[in-house]
Amino acid sequence: AAMSRKGMKLLVDSLTRSAKHFNKSEVECLINLFNTIVARASSQFAGAGFDRTVFRDTLHSAFGMTDEVVLDRVFSIFDRENTGCISVVEWVEGLAVLLRGTLEEKMKYCFAIYDLNGDGYISKEEMFQMLKNSLLIQAADEEPDEGIRDLVDIALKKMASTYLFVPFLLQDYDHDGKLSFADFERAVREETLLLEAFGPCLPDIK
Question: Which residues form the EF-hand domain (predicted)?
């Protein structure tokens, strides 16, 4: 028990330093919550963490996040070691960005969510896939894909209106129709509403 308390203290101290946005008391609560979730989950990762299904259920119940594509992407970003299991360190450090990240941290997080193939750019096809999953189903007599493609074009024009996207196209024809992180960052700094331009990937403010 003494070792357990000592281990807990060391873990709390370490995560308070690395997670930055939580104090020691909050880190301890998040560790306890993690342990509770792991104990409830009958998973092959029992003791080490929890899997994608448990993670998605937790984010859905805690934050009302429902988009399956977004939840899968959030899991992948939390799961930095790519083990298929969220460890306690990944849990606390991931929540630090998700809940209290700086604008810089949230921009990197949102960009990574939208960059589905991890190539460092958000392509028109990736924008289409994200918007397709986050929008309500249209009336039967409408062509949903066409409406979504129109929205992608509108989003790109919005980026261009902040002098971001057009110069990028002029400089790099190899990536025509794609947004780099630099483009995304400049656009968000001009208009913070563009942070979640291609689908909701942060919890509601409440």
Answer: 66-101, 102-137
For the domain made up of 104-194, give the CATH fold. Answer: Recoverin; domain 1 (1.10.238)
CB contact set of 176 (below 8 Å; sequence gap of 6+) = 169
Residue 140 confidence (pLDDT):
47
Neighbouring CB atoms inside 10 A of 145's CB total: 11
Q: Could you list the mean pLDDT of each consecutive 10-residue stretch along the chain, which spans 206 residues?
A: 74 94 96 89 69 92 88 94 93 96 96 94 86 58 63 62 40 58 89 86 83
Q: How many residues does the chain have?
A: 206
pLDDT at 170: 27
Long-range contacts of 48-55 (CB under 8 A, 24+ apart): 48/85, 48/87, 49/83, 49/85, 49/86, 49/87, 49/88, 49/90, 49/91, 50/85, 50/86, 51/84, 51/85, 51/86, 52/84, 55/86
